[in-house]
Protein: AMP-binding protein
Amino acid sequence: MANTSHRPPSTPHRTPGPLSGPRQHPGPDARTPLAPLLAALRPPAEVTRTFHRQGHWRAETVLHDLYRGAARHPHRTAIVAHRAHRPAQSRVLRISYGQLAACTDRFALALDALGVGPADPVAFQLPNRWETCALLLACLRTGAVAVPVMAGYGAHDLAAVLDAAQPRLCVVPDQWEGVAPAQILTDLAPQLPWLRHRVVLADTPDTAGIADTAVSADAVGAVDFGAHFLRTPHERHRPAPALPSGLADRVCLAVTSLGLHAAHSMSLHTPNSLHAGLGPDPGPGGACFSALPLATLPALLHAVLGPLTRGGTVVLQDVWDAEDALDLMAAAGVRQAHATPAQWAELAAAQHRRPRALSALRHAVTSDPAGTSAALAQQVHQRLGAPLRPAPLGTGPARADGACAPLAVWRRESGGLAATWQPPGRPATGDPVDPVGPVDPVGPGEGGRSRPGSEEIGGVFLVPVTEIEERLLAHPRVAEAAVVACTDPQHGELACAAVVPDGDPPTLLELRAHLLGQGVPPAHLPARLELMGGLPRAATGELHRRRLQGALARRLARSA
Structure:
């Protein structure tokens, strides 16, 4: 598959849909398919001209960068992927630029053979593996919309994502960390009439010792990813089509966020809004590692799209382990690494136990600046040799209508499609889109203001803080309540409920049962309860979250 003669096509294959903006914006509870709306959605021409003139947007995409890299340096390493459960001799895979370009074309033809076309949503619930990157690029190649789903989502949350996106196809692994996503998707299939194909990615070497959870594609009547995507030479029977016209301004990615009662929103990005979110170039040809799931926007931006745009190397680990991560970073010469504060604490401790040569590391990036203490930043700098900082900002301003803002936000059950920019004469159709908060390209609280009423915590799993607090206050023995992030050495960043009791203090179990009765999903329940005499507040009366988080961190440190 090492075809190295890749050049971005210049002839359009299909004509684009209608002009700027969707013609209809369904209201709440609308069952309108998402694909036709995505096909019609474009930024207004004046917005496009402005951002092109300012240098934030461009006519090309990461695919053009990939094909150029494959033509000029076909043997340069594009991806280094660590597979935790494989035998030691085959645990680390290296994919060259030539191989990645060839796989992108083959995967795109495989999608086309399954009936996937422009603007069709394609969901994939995969861990951080090289196939995830290739599938993302293949969706862009065909003009489809990639819908990455958290690998840790169970049946309830997966169903919510699929119901909102209504994808034509969904890819899941046969098993992952003791769970069988292939079986979960099979059980959900009767509820998903629009889902044409279920695809199962098997990883035979991984099943040693854990075969009891693996489910084959044949066993569940699904398409075998290896057979259809990897081993079928689609390119022998028909050439890859030209890139769709105007690809840089078409919706290519839907980043999902779940709230209470499976209230769901998707931030819809184009190649240009993603490109504007990359931030400053950390250096030519560098390797970038992310411990965050590839279903999160910061990981996709800074650890996948950034390196491939700049001729660097993507470094992935499918199952988190600090010791393995450091070995991988040292071997790959990682220049930039992204992780949660809890993961950085683990990395610093592991490096202290067994130092590795990390001389290439220049940028240590935290996913949660507010949850990163000065002591942790100092520890990371001393032991890993790089300052711990927030994610880099994009090239555009951190504004609701900035260059790195999503093109629109889709909320199927509450408001339909809310476009960021409205063409002249067209009335607004939804709430203003704010890229800071749950759809911020650089993560909540990084370089921008908070979105009122929709703050989220809990690492990459995004617990809807305001909604949880409102339901805690409905408990008869709770006078005041706040939900903040706390770092657990074993489980990472968790949601902590800080409660001022009214009368007899409630227990954590009582509060969790109360929240479940209020319809809160189990994944959003607080994992810790801290009883307080009062909550710190600013002069305006608003909760001072940073001061509260600091007080709780000191309390937890004293009790450790």
User: Anything to note?
Assistant: The two ends are 53 Å apart (CA to CA). The chain has 17 helices and 21 strands.
